[in-house]
Write a structure and sequence with these properties.
This protein has 439 residues and is an alpha/beta fold. It folds into two domains: 94 residues, no CATH class; 232 residues, Alpha-Beta Barrel (TIM Barrel), CATH 3.20.20. It has 15 helices and 16 strands. It has a ten-stranded mixed β-sheet with strand order 11-10-9-8-7-6-12-13-14-15. A four-stranded mixed β-sheet has the order 2-3-4-16. The radius of gyration is 23 Å and the shape is globular.
Length: 439
């Protein structure tokens, strides 16, 4: 048996005599005695350790075969997927005036019509093949709560369809949170609402400056109040968009959450992410020109690890390090714009070159236009981080280069940050079956 190509090995000063191994392929980790690790390298690993280490993805019989196997990794994931996932952009209207809005000058009184909603329902029914067991829709905007009646109508139709098929229908909202009152939440829960994701950009002074109402008034207090009134009946994910100038102040948000009773047991997850720069030719509502162009920008290592540490040490859940393919490579995931245009990523909505079809005319073959499987190249194949990256984010490539035929390599970022992220999980998350110790 040989050490897997997709394993990172780190020192572990907290336990002398041990090293930390992490499988990028299986997201598993283990503390291993140094002499046991050396026995892997020199081919003398005791047989009683082989089974456990193989199961964790730490050792393999043939490295070349393992690399070739990785080429079909996402195919297997797609084959196993039993959920039809949809993101549906209900409108491009909003009651906020966020300074960095990526939809920028596309915004307006643009709403999905009843006819388009009917075509959407038909599309979902036609794509729901026999092996599927779940339909999930993320209602998006603009602000989806401005289209609540249509969300209810679509969900009533989908819930009836799912019941007839003996499957499950659920939906979530990506909402700014200002309109998500308890009475609306209760109505939507009966139709399949499981949770919401809302954005809070750190403490009030930052959030109110970056995400004000159209009137210019701050929105922080309205969102917090709505979350307090609904956190007992829906799962709430809090996002937040930071920049290199303000991320160090974001941990102050946790003090506000705790003060208002939005403690870790009442919030499902916290996911802070950097503001992404708008691509060339696209302006925000406030002509915002700042933003990230690559995860490899040096400040991102500190920002990402700091904010995750602050969340975890207070008991809030945060995203795990795990395989994260681009949505372009994921089958049975579609984004439908308010006008019926179909895309593979919500960041591309309104960009006709990236439309993969229309509810009226059906889907086109997008494999070439979107450079699907772009990661199947010699450089990525040899990279230990391939299972975590799969060529990165093609929208980020578009932002940076104006095209999607270049990989968004994240190796510098992972070289700098992965060890810290894994050790955060060891420090703050309870042990799991994929976290072991072998003597």
């Amino acid at each position: 048996m040989k050490l897997s190509h997709y394993v990172k090995v780190y020192p572990y000063d907290e336990k002398p005599g041990y090293i930390l191994m992490y499988s990028t392929k299986k997201s598993s980790k283990i503390l291993l005695r140094e002499e046991t690790f050396n026995s892997i390298l020199n081919g003398s690993l005791p047989a009683n350790h082989s089974v456990a280490l193989s199961k964790l993805g730490m050792i393999v019989t043939d490295i070349d075969a393992e690399k070739n196997e990785m080429l079909g990794f996402l195919d297997k994931i797609n084959e196993m997927n039993q959920t039809l996932n949809m993101t549906v952009v209900m409108n491009l209207d909003c009651n906020f005036n966020c300074v960095y809005c990526y939809e920028g000058d596309m915004k307006g009184k643009l709403y999905m019509t009843d006819k388009t909603a009917g075509l959407l329902v038909d599309f979902i029914k036609n794509r729901f093949t026999g092996r599927k067991k779940t339909i999930n829709i993320d209602f998006f905007g603009g602000e989806p709560m401005l289209s609540m009646d249509m969300i209810k109508a679509i969900s009533e139709e989908m819930k009836a369809f799912a019941k007839d098929r003996g499957v499950t229908y659920s939906f979530s909202l990506v909402t700014n949170g200002s309109l998500f009152k308890r009475r609306y939440a209760e109505e939507l829960i009966s139709l399949g609402l499981t949770g919401i994701k809302t954005t809070i950009d750190g403490p009030p002074e930052i959030h109110n400056a970056t995400r004000p109402f159209k009137s210019g008034a701050g929105s922080f207090d309205s969102i917090i109040e709505n979350l307090k009134q609904t956190c007992d009946i829906v799962n709430i994910i809090i996002g937040g968009n930071y920049t290199s100038d303000n991320y160090k102040k974001f941990p102050l948000l946790f003090d506000y959450l705790d003060k208002e009773g939005l403690t870790p047991d009442r919030i499902s997850e916290v996911r802070f992410a950097p503001v992404i720069k708008n691509p060339g030719g696209v302006s925000s509502l406030a002509d915002y020109t700042d933003g990230l162009m690559s995860l490899n920008e040096p400040w991102m290592t500190q920002a990402g690890t700091l904010l995750r540490e602050e969340a975890l040490k207070r008991g809030y859940k945060s995203s795990k390090v795990m395989p994260s393919p681009c949505q372009i490579d994921v089958d049975d995931y579609y984004v439908v714009n308010y006008d019926g245009g179909i895309y593979k990523c919500h960041s591309f909505i309104g960009k006709k070159d990236f439309e993969i079809g229309d509810l009226r005319t059906g889907l086109s073959d997008y494999r070439h236009s979107h450079k699907r499987d772009i990661w199947k190249n010699s450089e990525c194949r040899e990279c230990v981080y391939l299972p975590l990256c799969f060529g990165g984010c093609q929208y980020m490539s578009y932002v940076r280069d104006g095209r999607v035929d270049k990989i968004d390599c994240r190796k510098p970022y992972l070289d700098a940050a992965l060890e810290t992220l894994i050790k955060q999980d060891i420090r703050y998350r309870p042990p799991r079956k994929d976290s072991r110790q072998i003597h």
